[in-house]
Amino acid sequence: MSSVPQLPLKPEGTIPQLGFGTWQIQGDACQNAVRTALEVGYRHIDTADAYGNHEDVGEALTTSGVPRDRIFLTTKVFRDNLRHDSLIGVCERSLKELQTDYLDLFLVHWPNNDVPMEETFSAMGELIANGKIRHCGVSNFTAKRLEKALKLDLAPISNNQVEYHPLLNQKRLFKICQKKGVTVTAYSPLAQGKVGENATVQAVAGRVGKSPAQVALRWLLQRGLIAIPKASSRAHIESNWEVLDFALPPGEYEAMDTINEWQRLIAWDVAEFDD
Q: Of 51, 102, 187, 253, which is the active-site residue?
């Protein structure tokens, strides 16, 4: 089994750089996909309360035969539940649905200007102190919003999960996160399949003898991000896992890193972005 590189998480611990995403997968398809991912070797599973698949993910984790302490489990609390009591309640329910005593990472799933961040991260700090979660973080936070949250110093924010792929290379945000000791998880790392349509990605893939999806994921790992590709079939789950078995040569990495596009795919009217 290939070894997954790890990144440090503050205040202590690590997170596997390659994870398995479960957005838009539910029911038996979700259970089968998560079990297959664990069979293949994935040990980082990402979900969210808003995905509506906690019970499916929990069933797959419990029946997989993989010990809980070998799995890094991430879920998220949606922006409508960032008040203190609501956030605590979502966490408690999530633990039951996921059939676990703790979460490795609990993220704020999109910010909400109507809820003071002091209230949200005070609740996160309580959950950490009570052993319900081991790390907390955010999702879709701009650099400015992240810096504001960090200054509160109510809970150690260790991760920012954002849309990131070769067609949306958020270098400035990533650099700021690095300086602050905040890891970055790339969701939609394959740009919902659009990476395969890019000429540069196609050329790099041809030269290194890999698929466009594989070179896109490999580029993210070499850049220092965490990638959580979603897949339903065993073939795609295994193909994504195989990115651990090669590295992009410096010239090919640079070619990927200089793709000059800005295709943001996940945006809605309540969102705010640095661009």
A: 51
Confidence of residue 275 (pLDDT cuts 50, 70, 90): low
> Cα dist. 141→7, 134, 137, 159, 204 in Å?
20, 20, 10, 10, 31
Query: Cis omega (within 30 of 0) on the bond before 11?
Result: yes
| Whole-number Å distance between alpha carbons of 224 and 159 | 13
Cβ-contact 184, 159 below 8 angstroms: yes
Contact 167, 160 (CB under 8 A): no
pLDDT in tens, 74-87: 999 999 999 999 99
Label residue 67 exposed, middle or buried (CB < 10 Å: 0-12, 13-18, 19+).
exposed
51 part of the active site: yes
Rounded Cα–Cα distance for residues 220 and 130 (Å): 34
Smallest CA-to-CA distance from 164 within 109, 236, 223 is with: 223
Whole-number Cα distances in Å, 219 to 17, 185, 249: 12, 13, 10
Q: What is the pTM of this model?
A: 0.96
Chain CA centroid to CA 171, Å: 17
Strand partners, 107: 76, 137
Among residues of the chain, what percentage have pLDDT more than 90?
A: 95
What do you get for the CA distance between the two ends of the chain, in Å? Answer: 40
Q: What are phi and psi of 209, to 5 degrees?
A: 75, 35
Q: What is the pLDDT of residue 1?
A: 58
Rounded CA separation 135/161 (Å): 13
